[in-house]
Amino acid sequence: MSDSTPPLPCDSAAPQGSELPRRLGAFDATSIVIGSMIGSGVFLKATKIAARLPDPRLILLVWAVSGLLTFFGALSFAELGAQRPKSGGLYVILHEELGPFTGFLFGWSLLAILQTGSIAGLAAGIVERALAAQFTLTPLQAMLTAGGLIVVFSALNIVSVRAAAGVQNAVTVAKSIGILGLIFGGFVLATGTSDNLQRVGAPPGGTSWLSAFGVAMVGALWAYDGWINLSFVAGEVKAPQRNVPLALLGGTLFVTSLYVLVNFAYHWVLPVAVVQAAKNPSRELALRFLGGGGAVAMTVLVAVSALGTMNSSILAGPRVLFAMAKDGLFFKRIGAVHPRFRTPHNAILLQCVWALVLLTRWQTFDALTDNVVFVSWVFYGLGALSLLLSRRRAPAAVRPFRTPGYPFVPLVFIAGALFLSGNTVYDSIVHKNNAALEAFGLLGIGAVLFPFFKRPKVA
Quick check: is 46 in a domain? Predict the structure, then answer.
């Protein structure tokens, strides 16, 4: 797009009373994508993936396929996001293409499970997988520490979106450098062998390799999750028709490359049994080439990385609740903008409170994050379906960015979302995963509440 192209009315950087100003540049946007994706997953999910899929070659394929699927999603959402550069992202897309009910259900799921579960899961992961490696904490101390992190970063996002974005930028650079250092150390400084890449048994519990592959993808896709966060704050991005697609595509490609390489390093240096037993494989890898000091450095890296992703989730989620309130599909007060800080303060507060509730209910990192992936990919698939519907309904519409490989790319993404969601339901029933059923129940509550918010408001 030429620099001389006149801006859309929504491109104004000046506050418009109850609107959110555009303060985020191209680097901020890319940092949100990368920072949202690189969190705890690449460090902490490798253990569960190796336990469910004891074949390093298939594990690397899981990370590559999950990255490709994520990239296909980013390609699809880049077109939709460039068309609708508004705060609310996927909520706005689903509301306009599939109707108010679907849009509301997605927004409700963000509050009930997705964004709040991510925030709570990241806080729990920081405590149980990073801080617990260096300090002895009682269950109460661990819970209070995780809850305190949620409260502090929520307060930061209320006070200043610019400060929150600044923290995001700094943390994103730091953890990207840290992962590159881990890759370098694994392949250059540590001693590895191709013998570690051999299969060591079958999936546990009589699970088929295909089902195990799908379950492993849930863990990998948690690590990739977060790319959608940029669409939530698109209304605050400068020149969104250019910067939103560039940030989505560049960010997902960069993260996919890092993830495949760092997992290759894990399994090149560490036997599968070590990865399966380790709470933090990155710590075990660093021990092999840096000793005790490397283990401490990896503990800090995991904590900082997860904090950055948690900050990004806290920043992005309230913009959807804000957009819902503006559409009359949620409490009016949630659509308020703080008169001094120019942030959706009530939406951030509500998100903070419910994240604390989920933390006390589901408590563990794995329970919280697995539920997030399961529910989120239902809506990601519907988002890609919206692209197909949009092209069919308005084939001549001006589109600042067009998805390459259409319709193959969104169709593959939809198929992947269907497989992932269906396999997760199957695995939850087989292994009696009550937390996943509770997550599904919370989603159902949103369907019951929709008529209450949809009914005409009395002036």
Answer: yes
For 39-84, the pLDDT digits (tens) are 777 887 888 899 989 999 999 999 999 999 998 988 888 788 777 7
Tokens of 422: 């269906």
Is residue 306 in a domain?
A: yes
- Judge whether 255 and 36 are in contact, CB under 8 Å: no
Is there a contact between 219 and 377 (Cβ–Cβ < 8 Å)?
Answer: no
Angstrom distances, CA of residue 446 to CA of 45, 102, 269, 335, 384: 30, 10, 47, 19, 22
Q: Name the β-bridge partners of 237.
A: 24
Q: Which domain holds residue 57?
A: 22-390+404-454
Enter the tokens of residue 453: 């918010």
DSSP state of 6: P
Rounded to the nearest integer, the mean pLDDT of the chain is 82
Q: How many domains does the chain have?
A: 1
Q: What is the DSSP string of 241-300?
A: HHHHHHHHHHHHHHHHHHHHHHHHHHHHHS-HHHHHH-S-HHHHHHHHHHTHHHHHHHHH
Q: Return the CATH number at 150.
A: 1.20.1740.10
Residue 58 tokens read as 């298939």
Whole-number Å distance between alpha carbons of 380 and 231: 12
CB 345 within 8 A of CB 338: yes
394: burial class by Cβ within 10 Å (0-12, 13-18, 19+)? exposed
Angle (nearest 5°) at CA 118 between 309 and 25? 35
DSSP string of 86-100? STTTHHHHHHHHH-H
Q: Position of tokens 């957009």? A: 323
Residue 233 placed within a domain: yes
Q: Among residues 377, 399, 438, which one has the least CA distance to residue 245?
A: 399
Cα angle 68, 44, 375; round to 5: 60
CA distance 352 to 342: 18
Q: What is the sign of the dihedral through the CA atoms of 78, 84, 87 and 92?
A: negative
Structure tokens of 235? 């209304």
Is residue 334 in some structural domain? yes
Supply the DSSP symbol for 432. T
Per-residue pLDDT tens digits for 176-188: 888 898 999 999 9
